[in-house]
Design goal:
Length: 163
């Protein structure tokens, strides 16, 4: 089974943990509890293939930005989360994207943009309470990784026969 290292990034309070916990445990997180770093694993089926997702839910606050380069170096795909109620959180993603591209030193890196808090549409400035497209955010990222880095076929071990 292929394993995928996914990293969830975005400003503080945009709902990175709510998105991740909703996907992994199907629980909506009501209360905001700032994250330093949480790691989750979930086995899923994407396009008829079993996959093990290792999801890193990162801190959104400025005091933990020094850890970002390490997250970015180790991650295979990235979910960039912003709140549709805050234009500033959307604008912040340009800097995150540029940092990912610099750290990965690549022209293309698998990324998905996720607008969170869609249940607060009237505040407008996608919340995951409704679980609107939550699975698709993660599945689409797996598909992007598969396109960019196809799985290498397992090498058959050669057997030695001594007579």
């Amino acid at each position: 089974m292929r394993e995928y290292k996914l990293v969830v990034l975005g400003a503080g309070g945009v709902g990175k943990s709510a998105l991740t916990v909703q996907f992994v445990q199907s629980i909506f997180v009501e209360k905001y509890d700032p994250t330093i770093e949480d790691s989750y694993r979930k086995q899923v089926e994407v396009d008829s293939q079993q996959c093990m997702l290792e999801i890193l839910d990162t801190a959104g606050t400025e005091q933990f930005t020094a850890m970002r380069d390490l997250y970015m170096k180790n991650g295979q795909g990235f979910i960039l989360v912003y709140s549709i109620t805050s234009q500033a959180t959307f604008n912040d993603l340009n800097e995150l994207r540029d940092q990912i591209m610099r750290v990965k030193d690549a022209d293309k890196v698998p990324m998905v943009l996720s607008g969170n808090k869609c249940d607060l549409e009237d505040d407008r400035v996608s919340r995951r309470r409704w679980k609107t497209n939550v699975d698709e955010v993660f599945f689409d990222l797996v598909r992007q990784i598969n396109k960019q880095m196809p799985e290498k076929p397992e090498r058959k071990k050669k057997k030695c026969l001594i007579l």
